[in-house]
Design brief:
mainly alpha; about 70% helix; about 5% strand
């Protein structure tokens, strides 16, 4: 079977849009956010009580901005890709707020409906990450810090990714307890654990599916600007 060309720049744009709607669907389900976005979501819940304009999307790129700074401190250097990673975070945060407004019009409340939104959000999230794996454009800070730490520590990237996911869950629980009281789980719930278990598997399956049907190529010669 002859593969069709899939431009990596299109993969980046689709990944951003799909990831934004994935987070919006997951938030709508209220079974817990994915492990990496849980800290930003909890910060949004708390700060927005004082500053209503501090949306989920704003919290995302503020938190990711901090991660970019931490990455630069740990690596003791600042690459162009770090700056573009923050630009990606801002674009994603903006799209996320738009997606949240659109998804808010959908029905919720009933358990069965919430399950549908959760499944949809989890699947879309994994598909979006698989799209990001097929583009040279700087990813979000979540992927950036894992990549840079694995290179800095000369450690397997999958082990660093697992460690970062665990750190995000622990941080989310600490923030939830600190902001809303001991025993109150906001953002980190059963759905977070389920996502952590199935996310890697789904990403792998979607990546294989994409590579089976498409040949990923660059439309523009811009890869050097993102190193």
């Amino acid at each position: 079977m002859k593969k069709r060309v899939f431009y990596t720049e299109v993969s980046y744009v689709l990944g951003l849009v799909i990831m934004a709607f994935a987070a919006a669907f997951t938030e709508k389900a209220d079974f817990g956010m994915s492990m990496v976005v849980a800290p930003a979501y909890i910060i949004h819940l708390k700060v927005s009580q004082i500053l209503p304009w501090f949306s989920f999307g704003v919290a995302e790129y503020v938190f990711q901005g901090v991660l970019v700074i931490i990455t630069a401190i740990i690596t003791r250097k600042f690459k162009k890709s770090y700056l573009f990673s923050f630009v990606t975070a801002v674009l994603y945060g903006t799209l996320l707020d738009i997606a949240m407004k659109i998804i808010s019009a959908l029905p919720d409340g009933q358990f069965a409906i919430r399950v549908v939104w959760y499944i949809l959000g989890t699947v879309l999230c994994s598909f979006a990450v698989s799209l990001f794996f097929h583009t040279y454009i700087s990813p979000e800070a979540y992927e950036l810090i894992v990549k840079e730490l694995s290179q800095k520590l000369n450690c397997n990237i999958n082990k660093v990714k697992t460690a970062y996911d665990c750190f995000s869950v622990v941080l989310g629980i600490i923030l939830s307890f600190s902001f809303f009281g001991l025993g109150v789980f906001e953002g980190v719930k059963l759905g977070t654990i389920i996502c952590a278990v199935v996310n890697g598997f789904l990403i792998g399956r979607f990546s294989k599916m994409l590579e089976h049907f498409f040949d990923f190529k660059n439309k523009f010669n811009l890869e050097k600007y993102f190193k």
